[in-house]
């Protein structure tokens, strides 16, 4: 990007962010919803500037695991949601140098799954990787050896930022990232057939109508939630890769929203973003994924509307939000190219 364009974009971004502050509703902070890890927080660690994935710890209540999409090593960070401080840094060994880590999820076996699945050039990599490692029992800086799985898609290479492990079956799923909103859900082999010695082919199983930047299964396994930069969708999980659109998510406007997970009890959806001291914002989870599996509309409206960010401020920020996304999207492509 030429200097003049950078200056122009910077002014536009500043204006957009100022308007956002004036128009966006307040985020959830400590609102007394109960349960550790149910409230929003800010990530304080100066090393975490590109938080692209988020998952609630199973072994350590109130702790969330995150990672940068580009880092100096194969690092995972355990962040205490009560303070926003990093309480452990895990170095994955046995995986080589990651390329573009975009997602993290928790399996029913208590293992962490890490998706090195990003491809900003839309098909440069003929394969991507998934790493699997046990969640540490003690929160301290340590190295843990991970298993590495080579992954290909049945219909060719693609960019993706959303990887989810079903909490009941342990099967791994990936949603690709399509700017036109015509994405796809891919299903991995059954857990017993995932191999570290041969390529694991993920099959396309469903359409996804969203430019997805992350996704998560509810703890009860009945709902798949996907987010984009300005909107989100919930799907009722019908098993074996079959989904039925349930409703829209009211996604908070964030600088570069690229992470989503459920709180440990499934009552909240946690939305994260890239950036220094980035905020993780909490929203109530509704629909099949909420505790009790109610049949409400998924937190943002019925299943027939567009996937906007919800709320009365939506129409006033779409243009400025587009400017922000264009700027940071170009900046990211230039950085990773």
Automatic annotation (TrEMBL):
N-terminal signal peptide: 1-29
Looking up InterPro entries in the UniProt record yields: 6-blade_b-propeller_TolB-like
According to the lineage, what is the superkingdom? Answer: Bacteria
Task: Give the matching SUPFAM superfamilies.
Answer: 3-carboxy-cis,cis-mucoante lactonizing enzyme (SSF75011)
Q: Which UniProt keywords apply?
A: Signal
Segments of skewed composition (Gly residues) = 289-309
Q: Where is the segment annotated Disordered? A: 248-309
Q: What is this protein called?
A: Membrane protein
Q: Which organism is it from?
A: Streptomyces alboflavus
């Amino acid at each position: 990007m030429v200097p003049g364009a950078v200056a122009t974009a910077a002014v536009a971004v500043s204006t957009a962010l100022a308007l956002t502050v004036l128009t966006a509703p307040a985020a959830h902070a400590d609102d007394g919803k109960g349960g550790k890890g149910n409230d929003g927080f800010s990530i304080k660690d100066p090393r975490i500037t590109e938080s692209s994935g988020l998952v609630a710890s199973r072994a350590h209540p109130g702790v969330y695991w995150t990672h940068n999409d580009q880092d100096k090593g194969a690092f995972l960070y355990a962040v205490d949601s009560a303070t926003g401080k990093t309480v452990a840094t895990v170095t994955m060994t046995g995986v080589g140098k990651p390329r573009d880590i975009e997602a993290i999820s928790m399996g029913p076996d208590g293992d962490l799954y890490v998706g090195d699945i990003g491809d900003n050039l839309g098909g440069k990599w003929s394969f991507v990787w998934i790493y699997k490692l046990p969640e540490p029992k003690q929160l301290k800086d340590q190295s843990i050896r991970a298993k590495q799985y080579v992954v290909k898609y049945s219909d060719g290479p693609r960019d993706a930022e959303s990887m989810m492990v079903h909490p009941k079956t342990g099967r791994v799923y990936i949603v690709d990232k399509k700017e036109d909103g015509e994405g796809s859900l891919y299903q991995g082999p059954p857990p017993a057939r995932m191999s570290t010695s041969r390529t694991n082919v993920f099959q396309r199983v469903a359409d996804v109508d969203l430019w997805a930047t992350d996704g998560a299964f509810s703890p009860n396994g009945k709902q798949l939630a996907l987010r984009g930069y300005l909107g989100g969708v919930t799907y009722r999980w019908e098993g074996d890769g079959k989904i039925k659109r349930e409703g829209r998510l009211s996604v908070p406007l964030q600088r570069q929203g690229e992470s989503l997970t459920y709180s440990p009890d499934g009552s909240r959806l946690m939305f994260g973003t890239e950036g220094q001291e980035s905020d993780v914002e909490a929203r109530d989870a509704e629909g099949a994924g909420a505790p009790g599996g109610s049949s409400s509309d998924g937190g943002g409206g019925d299943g027939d509307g567009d996937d906007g960010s919800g709320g009365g401020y939506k129409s006033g920020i779409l243009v400025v939000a587009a400017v922000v996304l264009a700027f940071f999207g170009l900046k990211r492509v230039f950085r990773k190219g």
